[in-house]
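Quick one, probably user error.
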């Protein structure tokens, strides 16, 4: 078994992102937290300066990634998907919103045990959980047992397609480490008629605006969260080749700029810093 890595130290980001979703009308009021509001207020001056100087800030990229993932999930559900697993769900309101909109949907939210208990308590308190909307603990590096990916996916119907989402997770790990999870996920999704994996990723393309600033911010966030923040890819082709090596049949890379005018997402000056990766597998794919 791989050594389990505890990322509970980054849970402060769950409070901040949870407040962003609530502040921008993407979450029910009960998702608001005092800690999230304090963080949001503390970062407001930096967010303002980022918007003025760089043409974008943390909130901009959070909304871009969240709304593009939502858009693709709507499309996949409308094409027949009825099972969704969201890993590292934090205080994401997506499970609540989508289960309200789609009564046919089975949605499992997962996170490390402490965060999963907090999310379970929140949703239970407001009576929005059901047999088709559940919260389970997970550790993406567990190979066996109740915290393993296999145990979570084992709750689903393997005769139907599934979507797995990670948002705000993968860049907290160096490429070699998160690749362990990607390889494991591609193999597990091969048990379903079709598997789709949606994740945000912050690449570091040569020539990208604020290239050196991004590297500096990555080191700072890594120090604060006591994790190894990584920028994994330097080109779309490099990302595609890597995901195919992990066992995915294909990878589509979504640039938020391609959705300007289609989705109500904030725009940045220049090339957005976030991408949405969409990996696909099919039955028997290994």
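Nope, works fine. Designed sequence:
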């Amino acid at each position: 078994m791989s050594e389990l890595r505890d990322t509970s130290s980054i849970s402060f980001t769950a409070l901040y992102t949870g407040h962003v979703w609530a502040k921008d009308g993407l979450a029910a009021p009960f998702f608001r937290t005092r800690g999230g509001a304090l963080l949001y207020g503390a970062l407001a001056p930096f967010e303002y300066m980022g918007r003025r100087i760089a043409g974008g800030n943390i909130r901009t990229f959070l909304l871009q990634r969240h709304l593009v993932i939502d858009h693709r999930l709507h499309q996949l559900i409308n094409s027949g998907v009825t099972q969704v697993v969201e890993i590292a769900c934090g205080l994401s309101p997506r499970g609540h919103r989508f289960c309200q909109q789609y009564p046919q949907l089975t949605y499992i939210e997962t996170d490390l045990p402490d965060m999963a208990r907090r999310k379970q308590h929140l949703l239970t308190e407001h009576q929005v959980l059901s047999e088709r909307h559940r919260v389970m603990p997970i550790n993406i590096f567990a190979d066996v047992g109740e915290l393993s990916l296999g145990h979570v996916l084992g709750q689903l119907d393997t005769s139907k397609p599934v979507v797995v989402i990670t948002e705000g997770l993968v860049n907290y790990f160096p490429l070699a480490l998160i690749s362990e999870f990607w390889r494991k996920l591609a193999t597990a999704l091969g048990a379903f008629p079709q598997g789709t994996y949606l994740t945000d990723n912050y690449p570091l393309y040569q020539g990208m605006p604020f290239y050196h600033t991004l590297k500096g911010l990555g080191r700072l966030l890594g120090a604060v969260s006591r994790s190894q923040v990584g920028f994994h890819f330097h080109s779309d082709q490099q990302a595609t080749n890597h995901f195919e090596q992990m066992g995915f049949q294909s990878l589509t890379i979504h640039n938020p700029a391609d959705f300007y005018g289609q989705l109500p997402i904030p725009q940045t000056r220049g090339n957005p810093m976030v991408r949405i990766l969409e990996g696909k597998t099919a039955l028997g794919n290994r």
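The longest helix spans residues 34-54.
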